[in-house]
Amino acid sequence: MSGIPDRLQAVENAIVAACREAGRAPGSVQLLAVSKTFGPDAVLAAVEAGQHAFGENYVQEGVDKIAALAGRGLAWHFIGPIQSNKTRPIAGHFDWVHTVEREKIAVRLSEQRPEALGPLNVCVQVNISGEASKSGAAPGEVAALAEAVTRLPNLRLRGLMAIPEPVEDFAAQRAAFAAVREIFETLRGRFGPDFDTLSMGMSADLRAAILEGATIVRVGSAIFGSRTYDK
Ligand SMILES: *Cc1c(COP(=O)(O)O)cnc(C)c1O
């Protein structure tokens, strides 16, 4: 676990620097630490260094970590692909879901959300890279899906999420994020102040994402180190 506090600090510094470059308030970007494939001890090292929001991609792994770290006031975000037979544990344990791409999944999450937990925060995932990506709703379908989410009683529509195709070129990174931001801004007028979240940017493209308006960046390897496996 050594190194996690220093790497976390370096990522926080990079976020502040990008905010400054963008003329944005440093507190306007939240760091989501993506702990997939790392154990509860790694999460705990980040918690002790001040981190409180964590992202998980795999349902059972995430649920196990949530249980292992209960009672610490952490926020858990589900950011992986969702199979319809896995919606119940997601609805029952997570605070946020970033990867809603079909109405059927949204309906199940709402039906299965325990009322005692309050509404589940939801972002609609946008497929901004076309055929290069299989995940996310097509840009032309996002408004209707978001509208459907607003009608579900146990979901709270918070914004959009995107994972653009990885590219090295900075201008190309910015262009993809700018396209997501345009959709976000169009919809903000329609959905009002609760629609406040733009989840985009990872270890390799966080600066471009912040320059284009990200409010949550999802960072894994830059904090926890490279993953020795990925499912
Ligand atoms: C793994 C993952 C991340 C973090 O990626 P890094 O490159 O390790 O920062 C962010 N978002 C999603 C959806 C992921 O699956």
From TrEMBL:
<comment type="function">
    <text>Pyridoxal 5'-phosphate (PLP)-binding protein, which is involved in PLP homeostasis.</text>
</comment>
<feature type="domain" description="Alanine racemase N-terminal">
    <location>
        <begin position="24"/>
        <end position="227"/>
    </location>
</feature>
<dbReference type="GO" id="GO:0030170">
    <property type="term" value="F:pyridoxal phosphate binding"/>
</dbReference>
<feature type="modified residue" description="N6-(pyridoxal phosphate)lysine">
    <location>
        <position position="36"/>
    </location>
</feature>
<dbReference type="InterPro" id="IPR011078">
    <property type="entry name" value="PyrdxlP_homeostasis"/>
</dbReference>
<comment type="similarity">
    <text>Belongs to the pyridoxal phosphate-binding protein YggS/PROSC family.</text>
</comment>
<keyword id="KW-0663">Pyridoxal phosphate</keyword>
<protein>
    <recommendedName>
        <fullName>Pyridoxal phosphate homeostasis protein</fullName>
    </recommendedName>
</protein>
<dbReference type="Pfam" id="PF01168">
    <property type="entry name" value="Ala_racemase_N"/>
</dbReference>
<dbReference type="InterPro" id="IPR001608">
    <property type="entry name" value="Ala_racemase_N"/>
</dbReference>
<dbReference type="InterPro" id="IPR029066">
    <property type="entry name" value="PLP-binding_barrel"/>
</dbReference>
